[in-house]
Amino acid sequence: EGTFWLGTHGGGLNRFDRASESFRSYLHDPYDPNSISHNEIRWISEDTSGYLWIGTNGGGLNRFDRKTEKFTRYGHDPEDPRSLSSDFARVVFQDSEGVIWVGTQGLGLNIFDEGSGTFAHLRADPDDSLSLSSDHILSIFEDSSGLLWFGTWGGGLNMYDRGTGRFTSYTVEDGLPSNAVYGVLEDD
Known about the structure:
By secondary structure, the protein is mostly beta strands. Helices cover 0% and strands 41% of the residues.
């Protein structure tokens, strides 16, 4: 539609309209619960319903409704085990089944339950070789067969099979050049 969405370091979410060559900023307002939760943006993605999902560096996760121009905030609440596991939401991804996955800095994966607005968590377990290998999630990708791949900081690459609920990890010990995987892409 000729509109670009830009996440900035300290300048919030910004919309650039190419036709008019103008910007509109969406900034955190501590007095408005419908504003974005934080001005340092780490990730922007769009779901199949047209909502924008914005991961922030310290303000959790935001869902932006472009029609109403209102944000819904999802943050970490230490008293609620079904809340977002960390307010450092680094990557947001919607899979082919419509599930929203949120990778965090240091506290694993979050799976969003839209009906309840809560999250299930997948974490690294050093005593379980079939768990996630690192809680620092840098990238998320779904391949053509429906397997999910997670790039991590310090734990290499993780493949997740939803059928078994288990992870297979690939690290430097397996020949991966680095245990920091910032992106995953499948060639056509």
